[in-house]
UniProtKB/TrEMBL annotation:
Its EC number is 3.1.3.23. InterPro entries: HAD-like_sf, HAD-like_SPP, HAD-SF_hydro_IA, HAD_sf, PGP-like_dom2. The lineage of its organism: Bacteria, Bacillati, Actinomycetota, Actinomycetes, Micrococcales. This is Sugar-phosphatase. Keywords: Hydrolase. Pfam families: Hydrolase.
Length: 230
């Protein structure tokens, strides 16, 4: 794991380039591009109270598909009802969802055919949260409904790369959660972890940054390179 807080290489711009060309970028949504944590916490706390589940279940939940988490907490016959209820709560609560610093600038600096959002939200919730944050969404958005398995399996990022027409090994993944980074790594992508939802030492990634304000892209023939500020 490489930390962006390490001493950068010397240069006129005091930045550190990543020495490879990427074809496309695959962005997680919650915790990476937008901050929906307060809304997520409110919804899941209320859900847990309604279902009589101790609040400790939320430890490590970020970045995981709702269905897989719920399947560990309720009886098999209750999964569908429990999932429907938490989705109802999340769709109704979008107060305070904001764009994370540097996110809009970074994704907007890439051509639309070289960027995608890959989220564990379902296809109903993802656009609701993006609209609430007034976030400039790309044309390609992959949700949990689009693949048979969610993160930490590689399927979501493989699907994002496929829709853009590139090999996943030529893509860079931006993620804030261990489960998402594991999915990106399993897909063969270069991984960038963004500290915040989880501390930097919990993020197993090729590169870890404090925020997306540290990252910019330089367009080149065939794709782009990453430049990391200290």
């Amino acid at each position: 794991m490489t930390s962006a807080s390490a001493a950068p290489e010397s240069g006129p711009s005091d930045t550190r380039p990543i020495d490879r060309v990427f074809r496309a970028a695959l962005f997680d949504m919650d915790g990476t591009l937008i901050d929906s944590t307060p809304a997520v916490d409110r919804s899941w706390i209320r859900w847990g109270q309604e279902w009589g589940i101790h609040d400790s279940f939320r430890e490590g939940m970020h970045g995981r598909p709702a269905r897989s988490l719920i399947a560990e907490l309720v009886a098999p016959a209750q999964v569908e009802a429990a999932l429907a209820r938490v989705q109802q709560l999340e769709l109704a609560d979008v107060d305070g969802i904001t764009v994370l610093e540097g996110a809009a600038e970074l994704i907007s600096s890439l051509p639309d055919d070289r960027r995608a959002i890959v989220t564990s939200c379902n296809r109903d919730l993802a656009p609701v949260r993006l609209r609430a944050a007034d976030f400039p969404a790309p044309s390609v958005v992959v949700t949990i409904d689009d693949t048979p398995r969610g993160k930490p399996n590689p399927d979501p990022f493989l699907e994002g790369a496929r829709r853009l027409g590139f090999d996943a090994a030529d893509c860079v993944v931006f993620e804030d959660a261990p489960a998402g980074l594991a999915a990106g790594r399993a897909a063969g992508c270069f991984t960038v972890g963004i500290a915040g939802t989880h501390p930097a030492h919990e993020l197993d990634a090729d590169l870890v940054v404090r925020s997306l304000t540290q990252v910019s892209v330089r367009l080149v023939d065939g794709g782009f390179t990453l430049v990391v500020a200290p």
